[in-house]
Design a protein that fits this description.
The protein has helices at 2-16, 38-47, 60-65, 79-87, 89-101, 118-121, 126-142, 176-189, 199-204, 212-215, 238-252, 280-295, 370-381, 403-417, 481-496; strands at residues 24-28, 52-55, 72-77, 108-114, 150-152, 155-156, 160-161, 170-171, 193-196, 226-227, 234-235, 260-265, 310-312, 361-364, 431-434. It folds into two domains: 24-357 and 468-495, Glycosidases (TIM Barrel), CATH 3.20.20.80; 361-434, no CATH class. 35% of the residues lie in helices and 11% in strands. The chain contains 15 helices and 15 strands. It has 497 residues and is an alpha/beta fold. α4 (79-87) crosses α5 (89-101), α5 packs across α7 (126-142) and α13 packs across α14. β7 and β8 form a beta hairpin. It binds 2-acetamido-2-deoxy-beta-D-glucopyranose (9 copies).
Length: 497
């Protein structure tokens, strides 16, 4: 019994202290003709160990399905609701009470995105944007949630003009009337500057001046490296250059301590004849390199070591989005939860298992302490209620008779019994989720022939309607032209140097 308590304590403690500084999250757009049920969405998130998501609304069904999962959630005030909220603190308070207070803390809402690219897609709402931020924040203060939940608004990178060299970047001056009070708000509330970063569009609109490799985080030959002549900082990818441009643009308004959070970034895996670089291989390369870059805490040249957490755009291909073919093909998965491509990442923390297929196992970690393994094995086969009869002498899983092999059998069974909940594969840190099947000989692990692992039964959420996330908020194709021209010119001049 004492051992059980100890293990439970350890398991819960280690899951709470996990990942805090830099994370990869995923955006969940819902413009699918066959949008999976919230339960299925959450099962996919769990199977891929995605622990941060951003919704484009505050869909009740999704918020209920995300309850008690440990997944951290950014919700959004859709642009359609922004005018009302920015004009009335009572409307804002109502919104917070219905969409936040009603779900917190069982659903771990950490962030509220107020509108989406408002300054470019809904310019007539610009005058009330800062009020909307303040009213939502005040409502959180009134509910004593302002420390747990941060408020900001995602902006397109096109508002940053002259982004290369990054040291000379500045914001479109005609937006300063909004941006200055907004940055003051973000600074005083300890919130992030939310930025959508699309090297794909920067590349596409550069007419060949931005090298594809520079957009894809691939190594550039030394003679093509991009150097900011003012700071002598070397840039190896567009993503970093855009983020540093944001830091410098903020600094030009005297704001130097607001972190950047990338609310959208990605690459489409398919396009029409005018979009030849929207390919599976490029999407895979971009997203794999992006994940590695963020989780490796590489930071940017201006702020090395300060990783910029990023939400990938996006979880599903959205077949009903209007526009060019690429618009429907930004997803990592199809509506069935099958991966569009298998990412080129090994061991990238715990998100988006390299093997984006359906099967995962829980195994003893290589080199784990034998005493701890034995204790965890005893627990699993005892209080953990795993049927360990296969491990007895003469049974198929007895050989090889090592603690690690036996523990792996028991850990995996426990993990499967718990619906592959990643938290059920911890065992005081001696276990880890893996994609390689540990079955051997006649010892066949539970679930190793089960290809139905993607959609697990979990608690049924309220059958709220499919969310009505409108596409108009998220057109991100039409900006960045001048931005890119500037990058190109600078790239070109840097090349000459
Ligand atoms: C809303 O604003 C009014 C007038 O400015 C103020 O009296 C009231 O306390 C505010 N209500 C909330 C919920 O903040
Ligand atoms: C929610 O997430 C935050 C940030 O990681 C964490 O500190 C907090 O403990 C979580 N809250 C709940 C109720 O799980
Ligand atoms: C700057 O913002 C204004 C107002 O939104 C817009 O009309 C203008 O086109 C922008 N300028 C550039 C260079 O993007
Ligand atoms: C920033 O601060 C400097 C020095 O304090 C000041 O001269 C400048 O006017 C400020 N700029 C803005 C945009 O507030
Ligand atoms: C992570 O960063 C370190 C130092 O910045 C570098 O040596 C290492 O190769 C990077 N790892 C990956 C997987 O990119
Ligand atoms: C991870 O991806 C790489 C590149 O696609 C592949 O070579 C490797 O075998 C994968 N690892 C696993 C465990 O699937
Ligand atoms: C994963 O599961 C889905 C849905 O059950 C299935 O269509 C797909 O083929 C599976 N993928 C693999 C690689 O087994
Ligand atoms: C997978 O699911 C299908 C449909 O629910 C079912 O017929 C099949 O037996 C399942 N396969 C396994 C291996 O569980
Ligand atoms: C899934 O849920 C259904 C309905 O609640 C239930 O009948 C079925 O047995 C469950 N399947 C599994 C594998 O738990």
């Amino acid at each position: 019994m004492a051992l059980l308590l100890l293990l439970l304590l350890v398991i819960s403690a280690s899951s709470a202290s996990a990942d805090e500084d830099a994370f990869i999250g995923v955006n969940i757009g819902t413009d699918l003709s066959d949008m999976p049920h919230p339960t299925q969405v959450v099962a996919l998130l769990k199977s891929q160990q995605i622990k941060h998501v951003r919704l484009y609304n505050a869909d009740r069904g999704m918020l209920l399905a995300l309850a008690n999962t440990g997944i951290k959630v950014a919700i959004s005030v859709p642009n359609e609701q922004l005018l009302g909220i920015g004009q009335s603190n009572a409307t804002a308070a109502n919104w917070v009470s219905q969409n936040v207070v009603a779900h917190y803390p069982s659903t771990n809402i950490t962030t509220i995105c107020v509108g989406s690219e408002v300054l470019t897609s809904l310019p007539n709402a610009a005058p009330i944007l800062v009020n909307a931020l303040r009213f939502i924040h005040s409502a959180l203060v009134a509910s004593n949630l302002d420390r747990q939940i941060k408020v900001s608004t995602p902006l397109p990178s096109s508002i940053i003009l002259d982004p290369f060299p990054p040291s000379q970047a500045f914001f479109n001056h005609s937006l300063n009337r909004v941006l200055v009070p907004m940055l003051s708000f973000l600074q005083s509330t300890g919130s992030s500057f939310m930025l959508n970063v699309y090297p794909y569009y920067d590349y596409m609109q550069s007419n060949g001046v931005i090298p594809l490799d520079y957009a894809l985080f691939k190594p550039l030959p030394a003679n093509r490296e991009v150097v900011d002549a003012n700071t002598l900082l070397h840039y190896t990818n567009v993503f970093d250059a855009v983020i540093d441009a944001a830091y410098f643009a903020m600094a030009s308004l005297n704001f130097t301590n607001i972190p950047v959070l990338v609310t959208e970034s990605g690459w489409p895996s398919k396009g029409d004849s005018k979009e030849p670089d929207a390919t599976l291989e490029n999407a895979n390369t971009y997203n794999s390199n992006l994940i590695r870059h963020v989780l490796n805490h590489t930071g940017t040249p201006k702020h090395p070591g300060i990783a910029v957490s990023t939400y990938i755009y996006e979880l599903y291909n959205e077949d009903t989005r209007p526009g060019p073919l690429s618009e429907k093909n930004w997803g990592l998965f199809d509506a069935n939860g099958a991966p569009i491509y298998v990412l080129h990442i090994t061991d990238a923390g715990s998100v988006l298992a390299n093997d984006t297929t359906n099967q995962t196992y829980c195994a003893a970690k290589d080199g784990a302490d034998v005493k701890l393994l034995q204790a965890a094995l005893d627990w699993a086969c005892g209080p953990g209620k795993v049927d360990c009869s296969q491990l007895a002498q003469g049974q198929p899983c007895y050989e090889p008779d090592t603690v690690a092999e036996h523990a792996t059998y028991a850990f995996d069974a426990y993990y499967k019994m718990n619906g592959k909940d990643p938290e059920a594969c911890d065992f005081k840190g001696v276990a880890a989720i893996t994609t390689s099947n540990p079955s051997h000989g006649s010892c066949v692990f539970l679930g190793s022939s089960d290809r139905n692992g993607t959609f697990l039964n979990s608690t049924a959420p309220s059958a709220d309607s499919k969310s009505s996330n409108s596409p108009i908020n998220r057109l991100h194709g039409n900006y960045g032209f001048s931005t890119c021209l500037m990058i190109m010119i600078a790239v070109a001049s840097a090349l000459v140097l």
